[in-house]
Each structure stands twice: as C-alpha cells, then as structure tokens.
Write a structure and sequence with these properties.
The protein is mainly β. It contains 2 helices and 9 strands. The strands form 2 sheets. Strands 1-2-3-9-4-7 form a 6-stranded antiparallel β-sheet, with no helix packed on it. It has a 3-stranded antiparallel β-sheet with strand order 6-5-8, with no helix packed on it. β5 and β6 (about 80-85) form a beta hairpin. It is globular and about 45 Å long. The termini are far apart. The relative contact order is 0.26.
Length: about 120
Amino acid sequence: MSGMELKNFDRPDESRQFEGLGRMDLVQVAGKAVGRARFEPGWRWSVNVGPIVGTATCQTSHLGYCVSGTMRITMDDDGTTQDFTAGDMVAIKPGHEAEVVGDEPVVFVDFGEISDYAKRR
C-alpha cells in the first residue's frame, strides 16, 4: 500500500543483544530507527552496554515511552538522578548512567537517536 509503512517489533529489522540482561529490537520506519528494549532486573548501562560501545556512560539521546518497569537515570554533568516508570514519556540527553530499579524488567520504546545504540564497534 503506498503512503504507509508498517513494521512490527515481533519481526524486527535488527536485534542487538546487550552483555547479558537484555536486548534491543530495532525497526526502520520512514528512514528512522525506532527501538524496543528489554532491560532485565540487575541491568546497568556501564556493565551491560558500555563494554560494547567503549564509553563509560551512555552518549545517546533518548526520546521514549516506558511500557513497564522502573529505570533510574543519573546525569554525568550534575549528578541529577531521576526514575521513570510505566506510562512515563522521557527525553534524556547524552551523558548519563542508567539502571533497572526493582525486580520487574523495563520495556522501553525509543524514538531518539538510537541508530548506533548498543552497536558493536
């Protein structure tokens, strides 16, 4: 059908495994990457993604929606900490640590600049 593009996270264009405790499925829609990530309890960016990309903290800009669970973000520049949870929309600038809080997996749909997120270099 012209004028419409349909994708489904159950049939992603690409899947990226973290260093344990989760993965991100990506689809390309209208030339833009959209990701659905699942972060398992105990997941922490510096442990599970940092070794893949080679930076101490996340340098990706995120714009997304939390489907389930609770994620804690700590900004590099001023140490500000904020939790987000199911139902929250969030914009996060580059330069942050992230970790799952509690025993529930975090499912997060990301419309940010995630083309290279968790991509092995």
